[in-house]
Design a protein that fits this description.
234 residues; globular; three-stranded antiparallel sheet; 32% helix; Rossmann fold; 7 helices; binds fructose -6-phosphate
Amino acid sequence: MRIIEKNSYEEMSELCAGIIGAQVLMKPDCVLGLATGSSPIGTYACLAEQCAKGLLDFSQVQTVNLDEYCGLPGDNPQSYRYFMDTQLFNKINIEKENTHLPDGCAADMQAECLRYEKLVAGLGVDLQLLGIGHNGHIGFNEPAEDFPVIVHSVKLAESTIQANSRLFDRVEDVPTQAVTMGIGTIMKAKKILLIAGPDKAEIVERAMRGAVTPQVPASVLQLHPDVTVILSKA
Ligand code: F6R
């Protein structure tokens, strides 16, 4: 595991975008696993800028996102589909049909989980970008008794609902369920890139240097052969 410390959010974002950009340059038809949340916003802005300058070409890239809230359609500004469209996809030359997220509004959620698991496994993720929750979650794999293996629907932890409520008018508006890649789904990615700000220092330390336990889901990354962690000190 490589751990790189940067002085600021901007520097972290530039380096993260540089690594993702290098992946796209080396393999123009690569599969990128993507995340939402505050952490990758700067990275996506850098990627959009490089694409606008003609330095990156996403025309053959496929993307798979980690997760989606249940019950929010893609045109809802709080949905992760909307986030990805506005923060990245609408700003780069990617084909919309090559951008994949779980369908949080599927009538048969079990069938949707299986569909998404097969899709991700079939594509094969070259590089998976991750953020980390204050409780150590990755995707929406919350602390639990076991590591959930495949794509599944999940009840969000109260701490996650509280953390994510900053983006909603009222905490009651935050969906309580989501659909997420499992830990096994994430671990199949060839390379993993995790970014975190200083507010995550304590949980990153536990995840990277503490015991591997489903109580700290990100700790499983210690078992992956190719993980890069970029931390920002400010
Ligand atoms: C988002 C996701 C989550 C976030 C995590 C950190 O798709 O899967 O695990 O990465 O909650 O969120 P931020 O970056 O907002 O602190």
